[in-house]
Write a structure and sequence with these properties.
By secondary structure, the protein is an alpha+beta fold. It contains nine helices and five strands. Helices cover 52% and strands 11% of the residues. The protein has a five-stranded mixed β-sheet with strand order 1-5-4-2-3, with helices on both faces. α4 (96-108) packs across α8 (160-175). The protein is globular.
Length: 216
């Protein structure tokens, strides 16, 4: 019986198009000006030896940043050890500033990562924080609810270290040509502008990371 089936199997395999057995086609090359732009004299926001930085310029008050966050958190878990994901709050002015200051205060106190999603939720899901005209007392009260010492947070929020980080972020984001959030910047050199959705945007970032790794 097996000997009778063998010629049939050989014939069927011969009918399979060669293209079906070939490797999937390589993705089209990235196009400058369509997928990304080069940042003249660009440098990482927080350089770390041996690391390729992927900076996300974001705002807690930005609903699009809130929508991206779950996808970004999942993507972060897939990043190789030589890649560092760095959130950079946009300090465009107005209602962006109180929450940019809050980010840097939380970072200085070592609570930024564990409170990050909670801030988005408070602004866009629960409504326990206001988008505009947020006072220092309201923001400090929120962090106190997250287990952060209120007085320590308030002092840090108003401190010179946060002033310096805020000025650094404002200058860096401006030099990178960022006009909206969320924006992904790879190693300070490439600002991602392409992608039909967040997943596409991160795929472009993956390929720019690979480019930077190949240049090391």
């Amino acid at each position: 019986m097996a000997s009778r089936l063998l010629p049939v199997l050989i014939t069927l395999l011969a009918l399979v198009p060669a293209v079906a057995l070939a490797a999937p086609p390589a993705p089209a090359p990235l196009v400058e000006g369509q997928d990304y732009v080069v940042i003249p004299d660009g440098t990482p926001f927080a350089p770390a030896k041996g690391k390729i930085e992927v900076a996300e310029v974001f705002g807690y008050t930005c609903i699009h940043c809130a929508h991206l966050e779950p996808t970004l958190a999942t993507w972060k878990k897939t990043l190789p050890r030589d890649v560092q994901l760095t959130p950079v709050p946009a300090a465009f002015g107005g209602y962006w500033i109180p929450y940019a200051r809050a980010f840097f205060a939380a970072k200085q106190l070592g609570v930024q990562e564990r409170t990050h999603q909670a801030v988005f939720d408070a602004l866009h899901k629960v409504g326990s924080l206001p988008i505009q005209n947020a006072s220092a007392d309201e923001i400090a009260g929120f962090y106190a609810d997250q287990g952060v010492d209120r007085a320590k947070f308030m002092a840090t929020l108003r401190g010179p270290e946060v002033d310096a980080q805020l000025a650094k972020a404002r200058d860096w984001v401006g030099a990178a040509g960022v006009e909206g959030t969320p924006t992904i910047i790879v190693n300070g050199k490439y600002r991602v502008i392409g992608g039909r959705n967040y997943s596409d945007m991160l795929k472009i970032a993956d390929r720019l990371i690979a480019r930077e790794r190949a240049r090391k």
